[in-house]
Write a structure and sequence with these properties.
Largest sheet: 7 strands, mixed
CATH topology of the largest domain: Spore Coat Polysaccharide Biosynthesis Protein SpsA, Chain A
Shape: globular
Structural class: alpha/beta
Oligomer: single chain
Strand content: 5-15%
Number of helices: 11
Protein name: Glycosyl transferase
Distance between the termini: 59 Å
Order of helices and strands: EEHEEHEHHEEEEHHEEHHHHH
InterPro entries: Nucleotide-diphossugar_trans (IPR029044)
Helix content: 25-40%
CATH architecture of the largest domain: Alpha-Beta Complex
Length: 349
């Protein structure tokens, strides 16, 4: 039987607050297993944060204990059960065929300003990040949130919500209106074309600040040696390993998308793997051996990806010029862009 996380963790408040310890860091997850691929990402994030930063880690979950939450607490993470204010709307949307409850965990990040009771600014990241060095508060804190671009480092028209510095008070004041807006969109739109990142972009349009790219650096941007936060946006470490170690269903758009990034930017992924290996030196991460191995293979052997599936049409285009709606989830935007790009190539052949 699963055990509920106790209500003592419902707010992020600590009697032993020490500002010299750095920013409070929030991340979120539904019930991942410790030994799953995403469990590895979560452990990497925590171990690198504990080793390389002064961040104070806080995990928001959907509310049940398992081996992962126990590991988190053993490694100094405050585990908080999410209040899930979107849960009723999302479940109703699923019953009406407009949405999926598997997206419930994506919305946990929205709760940060309601859970935080002490600090004026906090950091939120997705769980697929590795901290390479300390993450101080930016010299110009945001009015609401500070974020970096999605795919292109110069694409400031649409931000990626995988790393956000939040102004807690202003985000809390705007939260009821943000929640009404998000619920209305799920209630009235086809839920396939709405995710939490779009909801943030839509609601805070014209009100968000630019975040230093080093706070949300992607492997496909190149050398991460100056980065503070390395974000495995798209292919995760276990995805790249799978490309070298097992047969993959290349006919699936999901794998074609991931492979297109790794095959097109192998030097960036090699440098990213090397950075992860260095960032976890001395930790109790058993996967370090194969992380080193894949870094070496990326340096000497191109990713074994069929060249005919590699297509970066999605990468270099603005969303508004592709004919799809920016409200679509990331994977649907990518897959649509790839299909359109191929169609145009066939028509021009």
């Amino acid at each position: 039987m699963r055990r509920l996380i106790g209500t003592a963790g419902l707010t992020a408040r600590a009697a032993d607050r020490d500002d010299t310890r750095g920013l409070k860091w929030y991340f979120a997850s539904n019930q991942q297993r410790l030994d799953s691929g995403h469990g590895l990402n979560l452990r990497l994030a925590v171990l690198s944060a504990r080793r390389n930063t002064r961040l104070r880690p806080h995990l928001i979950t959907t509310g049940f204990r398992n081996d992962l939450t126990e590991w988190m607490e053993a490694h100094g993470v405050t585990v908080i059960p999410g209040r899930q204010p979107m849960a009723e709307t999302i479940r109703a949307g699923e019953a009406a065929g407009r949405y999926h409850t598997r997206y419930l965990g994506h919305w946990l990040r929205c709760e940060v300003p309601m859970l935080e009771e002490e600090d004026p600014f906090v950091l939120y990241t997705d769980f697929d990040v590795v901290f390479l060095r300390d993450v101080p508060l930016p010299s110009r804190p945001p009015r609401y949130i500070a974020c970096a671009p999605e795919f292109r480092p110069d694409g400031w028209h649409y931000f990626n919500s995988g790393a956000m510095v939040m102004n807690v008070a202003n985000m809390r004041r705007s939260f009821p209106e943000f929640l009404r807006s998000a619920k209305h969109q799920i209630d009235t739109l086809d839920g396939r074309i709405l995710n939490d990142q779009y909801a943030y972009n839509n609601f805070y349009a014209g009100r968000w600040n630019r975040l230093d790219l080093r706070y949300n650096w992607k492997p496909y941007w190149g050398d991460p040696s100056e980065a503070r936060i390395l974000h495995f946006h798209g292919p995760k470490l276990h995805n790249v390993r799978a490309m070298y170690t097992q047969p993959l269903p290349w006919e699936q758009p999901y794998w074609r998308t991931l492979a297109s990034l790794v095959a097109s930017f192998p030097d960036g992924y090699r440098a990213a793997f090397e950075a992860v290996f260095a960032a976890t030196e001395g930790t109790d991460l058993p996967e370090r051996a194969w992380i080193r191995e894949i870094a070496d293979r990326l340096a000497t052997q191109p990713p074994p990806v069929p060249p005919e599936i590699v297509d970066l049409g999605f990468f270099n285009n603005d969303y508004g010029k592709l004919g799809f709606d920016a409200r679509w989830p990331l994977d649907e935007r990518i897959h649509y862009a790839i299909r359109r790009w191929r169609l145009r190539r066939r028509q021009n052949a």
